[in-house]
Amino acid sequence: MIGVDWGTSSFRAYRLTPDGHVIDKTTSPTGILFVEGGRFADVLRRAILPWVNAGERRVLLSGMIGSRQGWIEAPYLPCPAGAADLAAATIAVPFNDAEVRLVPGVTAEDAGVPEVMRGEETQIIGTLRELGPSGVACLPGSHAKWVRVENGRIMGFSTFMTGEAFAAFSGHTILGRMMKVDAPADPAALRQGLARSADAGGLLRHLFGVRTLGLFGRLSEDSAASYLSGLLLGHEVRAALAAHPDMGSILLIGDAKLCALYADAIAFCGGSARIAKADAAPLGLTAIAAAVAWH
Amino acid sequence: MIGVDWGTSSFRAYRLTPDGHVIDKTTSPTGILFVEGGRFADVLRRAILPWVNAGERRVLLSGMIGSRQGWIEAPYLPCPAGAADLAAATIAVPFNDAEVRLVPGVTAEDAGVPEVMRGEETQIIGTLRELGPSGVACLPGSHAKWVRVENGRIMGFSTFMTGEAFAAFSGHTILGRMMKVDAPADPAALRQGLARSADAGGLLRHLFGVRTLGLFGRLSEDSAASYLSGLLLGHEVRAALAAHPDMGSILLIGDAKLCALYADAIAFCGGSARIAKADAAPLGLTAIAAAVAWH
Fold first, then answer.
1. Which residue, among B113, B135, B150, has the nearest Cα to B251 in the 3D structure?
2. B2-112+287-291, superfamily in CATH?
3. Mutation test of the interface with chain B: which of A208, A210, A241, choosing the one with the most B Cβ atoms within 10 A?
4. Which residues in chain B touch residue A156, judged by CB atoms under 8 angstroms apart?
5. Which tens digit of pLDDT belongs to each residue from A21-55?
């Protein structure tokens, strides 16, 4: 089969064996934001044509390609959502050369406020062997997700705007003037920020410390970005750990560097974490595809 | 005497009687960021010359004019700081036509992180009659201050980057795409945000709700900015109220519209507040000037 992880800024297509082994792979920067005039079919055809010519007839897509800004909007599937639930909720996409289906995103509800994910559900399914039937996974990123799984199904999750908040505060507030954003990471300053996040006063207050510590020469321009990162990460991790007591070790899924950062932050804040080894998206696409009723 | 409230973006000069009555007043947009080449003396001379010619010989300045980016840097005075402490710590500024002195900013320490204010200390002194000898004042703004006063002296304070966070999130994150920032305030959406701030999960999580509520058609573009404002304000107010139990009614000082917004938010979150009637800066300048040892 063919699996495609099609996000906002990137496109990754895989030719896969039935057990999720990657036979071939092609990636391009044609994320949905960079596809002009809705020419999604052309982008897909160009990428997978050799595999279709070699006999592949089933294509499963996941990610933002199913959003309102994507090819066809696939309504969010409410939790609980396991591989079978997602497979049953895939929707058909018109395409000439193969049967193309789209994995829906997932939604949950928290005190009257909805949560959404698109693409992460597929990565979760792809790492179930490492996560075990029940546990908590965390997918760092500009909108980090913490996901609770029971018996192989996503039961609920929460999103933290940590990465985007870092970009906004470092790039568009007075705090940015106190820091060299591209300075190498300073682990001591990061820990200082993580520690500060445990104090009373809340994030909006702690943020001002980036300015005052700099003003008093107690935080250098080279270290301020790491301190800010520690502050934000600490607020996220402490809130997430509090929401999931007795959760055991958290499985981190995603970019290796970001996962290592989160593993350190989780340990610093009193939790424990491990980093997923699996190539989450292709394994998840394979597992969901195995449960789809293809024509 | 002459009192000048000289901030980052504005300049307000007052001719004052010994009891703080404003005889005359002049304002201009020559805040310190808009004074070129350090020509602070010229700006001051032009504004106050008629009063100097009429016999005024004492000039007291407060605000960011005493910062590193201002005329002369006045080191921060550590708390506790009352009118007499501030008067004793004023510093002389070279000026030909009158004796000019500068009120220092104030600093406090919270768990190893400094706090700073410049200008707000003078407003606090100016509203002591309304505040009473002891109490808590709040000065809303892009960096809001909550200030604890005992026996007429500032004992400690905390700064919340609420206003600047609103600008950063509404202007420079995905949340901005969900809202019309200049839509009229929506009191119901504001209350909805204030209520959400009481839930578990923390600010970084609650922020994502601006996006998902919009995505599901449960928050309109016209109401999203008020909801975001309520979220941020709620996080500030709840943290500040928790830090000051049994504080009584909080005295709000500053812009009338902003003070009314804060008064509602404080009441919503279970506190009580009143809005200062006094023209805080000229009264504070008068009170501090009365304690200065002029030549």
1. B135
2. 2-keto-3-deoxy-galactonokinase, substrate binding domain (3.30.420.300)
3. A208
4. none
5. 999 999 999 999 999 999 999 999 999 999 999 99
